Amino acid sequence: MLVLLAFIIIFHITSAALLFIATIDNAWWVGEEFFADVWRVCVNNTNCTEIDASFQDYPTMQAVQATMILSTILCCIAFLIFVLQLFRLKQGERFVLTSIIQLMSCLCVMIAASIYTDRREDLHKNNLGLYALAQDGRYGYSFILAWVAFAFTFVSGLMYLILRKRK
């Protein structure tokens, strides 16, 4: 039982770390001379431009930013609730509240990555001043980590739903 508990805790912490890296790091769209994420676009590692209200389709980027932040926060809250439920639940009860919050985190990261996947081409075409080199780019590791975090949060949410408290 102790090994299972350690695995669940490590899995959850890994999910949170993936969400933090995917949200913060600047590698959602990368190329030879540039890299971009949901916060800024950088050319030659020196010329960085923040994505702000002057950005075309700024509300789309705000949606991606907000849902990634919300996903990370919900994942951390789910972990804290899991620790509290570990000591407060009666024997035989399920970790339903933790599961619900973790699945909401999963939903948020899925929404963010899906919006970016769908709208990326339009964002780049509408902001050619920032994304002049973006046509030759590819999805970066932060974008991939966001999808991996989706899978991890989904699996951990299901684990919490199935898991019962034992001695």
TrEMBL record:
Arranged from A to Z, the UniProt key words for this protein are: Cell membrane, Cytoplasm, Golgi apparatus, Membrane, Nucleus, Signal, Transmembrane, Transmembrane helix
Main subcellular location: membrane
Q: Which Gene3D superfamilies match?
A: 1.20.140.150
Q: Which residues cross the membrane?
A: 63-83, 95-116, 139-163
Subcellular location field? Apical cell membrane; Cytoplasm, Perinuclear region; Golgi apparatus membrane; Membrane raft
Stretches of the chain forming a coiled coil according to its record: none
The way it spans or sits in the membrane comes to: Multi-pass membrane protein
Q: Which GO terms describe its molecular function?
A: integrin binding; protein kinase binding
Question: Which biological process, per GO, is one annotated for this protein?
Answer: protein localization to cell surface
Signal peptide positions on this chain: 1-16
Q: Name one GO cellular component term.
A: cell surface
This protein's record includes keyword Aminoacyl-tRNA synthetase? no
Pfam families reported for this sequence: PMP22_Claudin
Q: What does this protein do?
A: Functions as a key regulator of cell membrane composition by regulating proteins surface expression. Also, plays a role in regulation of processes including cell migration, cell proliferation, cell contraction and cell adhesion.
Q: How does it assemble?
A: Interacts with PTK2; regulates PTK2 activation and localization. Interacts with ITGB3; regulates the levels of the heterodimer ITGA5-ITGB3 integrin surface expression. Interacts with P2RX7 (via C-terminus). Interacts with ITGB1; the interaction may be direct or indirect and ITGB1 has a heterodimer form.
Q: Which family does it belong to?
A: Belongs to the PMP-22/EMP/MP20 family.
Q: What is this protein called?
A: Epithelial membrane protein 2
The organism named in the record is Ursus maritimus (Polar bear)
